[in-house]
Known about the structure:
By secondary structure, the protein is α+β, with helices and mostly antiparallel strands. The protein is built from seven helices and twelve strands. Helix 2 (about 35-65) runs antiparallel to helix 3 (about 85-115), helix 4 crosses helix 5 and helix 5 (about 240-250) packs across helix 7 (about 320-330).
Amino acid sequence: xxxxxxxxxxxxxxxxxxxxxxxxxxxxxxxxxxxxxxxxxxxxxxxxxxxxxxxxxxxxxxxxxxxxxxxxxxxxxxxxxxxxxxxxxxxxxxxxxxxxxxxxxxxxxxxxxxxxxxxxxxxxxxxxxxxxxxxxxxxxxxxxxxxxxxxxxxxxxxxxxxxxxxxxxxxxxxxxxxxxxxxxxxxxxxxxxxxxxxxxxxxxxxxxxxxxxxxxxxxxxxxxxxxxxxxxxxxxxxxxxxxxxxxxxxxxxxxxxxxxxxxxxxxxxxxxxxxxxxxxxxxxxxxxxxxxxxxxxxxxxxxxxxxxxxxxxxxxxxxxxxxxxxxxxxxxxx
Length: 334
Ligand code: CUA
């Protein structure tokens, strides 16, 4: 009995020390959204329980190692114990209650992070190997996610190819993005600052580099930025030509697969491509003129370049004018 009392008393300070040790290590980034606060509450309860369970296992273990160690001259066997119904029932019932309680807390928290604000701003997100594009309600597209503070944003997300996952650690919540389906995520940013969106689903060679800035600003700063972006994009696209093409290329993340410096990525380089003779997988050779490049953008599998796999390039939704400007841009890459 004396041993149980000592161990029982020791478990309390060890639990507390473990919990505060974990807290002091600052594992979590800042809480930058309404949802992050809710998620962290569950996380904290989780850590408290885990600290207690850790102490409950480690204290009796270490205590037994020291107190019941074999002393000098002891050669006999230890006391033989067989079964203990009371103990077994206890260590079944208590974890059952704990797991059920946590299942409830988890489901409740998940619900809380999905509470919809009818005035939410809707941003369409397109993920593909290996970049992000954000379509704003003001009618322009950017590779950066700018969000006004204290206003819920509803991200409607889809993928052009494989499964990706939207994750900004400071917002805590995470959502998979699937081809042919729209998944949503609601975020209410509450802290001004620059963050980063990461892709959290292994999606191929450049998965680790599938990152883009996420910037939380005041509503006024956001409005000014959106106005300027929309105007600049409209002017550029109306003008057409290589500059508009370069902007389209950046927006659609073509650089993730096509280099402009001659290096070999997932797709053929664009440097010196225009006007060159391209060897195809079929053994034929084709001249890289406007017709060939236009066809390759519209239907990437029509002619496969020797040494490159088919079915890799996704289908991009581009107007003929946009494709023309991209081809004009490729023509400038000598
Ligand atoms: Cu996209 Cu990993």
